[in-house]
Amino acid sequence: MKAIGLTRYLPISNPESLVDIELDKPVPTGRDLLVKVEAIAVNPVDTKVRAPKDKVEDTPRVLGWDAAGVVEAVGPDVTLFKAGDPVYYAGDITRQGANSEFHLIDERIVGAKPKSLDFTHAAALPLTTIIAWEAMFDRLNISAEGRDAGKSVLIIGGAGGVGSIGIQLAKRVAKLQVIATALRPESAKWAEDLGADRIVNHFGDIPQQMKDIGFPQVDYVLIFNDTDVHFPAAAVIKPQGGICTIVENAKPLPVELLKQKSGAFHWEWMYTRSMFQTPDMIEQHKLLSEVARLIDAGAIRTTLGRDLGKINAQNLREAHRLLEEGRAIGKLVLTGF
């Protein structure tokens, strides 16, 4: 089968950083699905895993943690899906990724593809949706049934992949007042179109800007971009509020900002359940199924920003380059081999 992989971790400008390869078609066992991949999306985690380092792989490593496709075959213990079912999912970072014609994935972290979306638009959703959903509803315990309606959230990185779905979930599912950060006019418009009530400058004095727009404090802060730079924005949290970040820090964080307010601090890592085979792994299947229902009902929409064409090494390198430059709005997707 066709795939895109690497054996060396190189700068994306090097044509050997991601190459077209041929691999054996895998066979499903246990609770695995064998999925015929129709579309993939690319995320910052792909670029971070591929980032230059001295390690050399003995066999090609395949990246990719966002996919939509059709179940080709199932393992003997599968109960949730059957051959022919259209699915979408974000994968498991401990296994080979989805940048291949066929891919093995545990059914418990797979959802039925939204009926109203084609594979291209569906592939844009899984990873960012899981992250945003878990950050809000699992880590910060915001009600997914609207019981926290009217409370406020600051979403840092509103026009990125996670921010794009996070704004929608916060506004249309949790019924919160949403303030999002953006830098360029086109980023701000994207965030507003998704439901953000107010926009503040991504690299400005966020606490001062929040005061200027009438939100000196908020109930929740979601950091979806550069924790080291943006953690001081936690100063805008209300007493007994909560902050959640998805980006690893490179230096110590000033968590003392939260002490007098008894503020809660959470990490969100969407691979926790699959990496540690937690008893509640199936929660990702449930949340992807619920998001598919919301999409088909017209409550939220895909976050596709740009379709870069066929799934091959050249187009995948371009997606990595755009992400590393930090100029992507929404999600970057590739469709078909």
UniProtKB/TrEMBL annotation:
Instruction: Please give one Pfam family short name.
Output: ADH_zinc_N_2
Residue span, Enoyl reductase (ER) domain: 13-334
Alphabetized NCBIfam families for the sequence: adh_fam_1
List the subcellular locations. Answer: Cytoplasm
Q: How does it assemble?
A: Homotetramer.
Q: GO MF annotations for this entry? A: oxidoreductase activity; RNA binding; zinc ion binding
Name where it mostly resides: cytoplasm
* GO CC aspect terms: cytoplasm
Question: Sorted alphabetically, which Gene3D superfamilies does this protein's record hold?
Answer: Medium-chain alcohol dehydrogenases, catalytic domain, NAD(P)-binding Rossmann-like Domain
Per the record, the similarity remark reads: Belongs to the zinc-containing alcohol dehydrogenase family. Quinone oxidoreductase subfamily.
Report what the protein is called. Zinc-type alcohol dehydrogenase-like protein
Q: Which SUPFAM superfamilies match?
A: GroES-like (SSF50129), NAD(P)-binding Rossmann-fold domains (SSF51735)
The UniProt keywords, alphabetically, are: Cytoplasm, Metal-binding, NADP, Oxidoreductase, RNA-binding, Zinc
The species this protein was found in? Candidatus Burkholderia verschuerenii
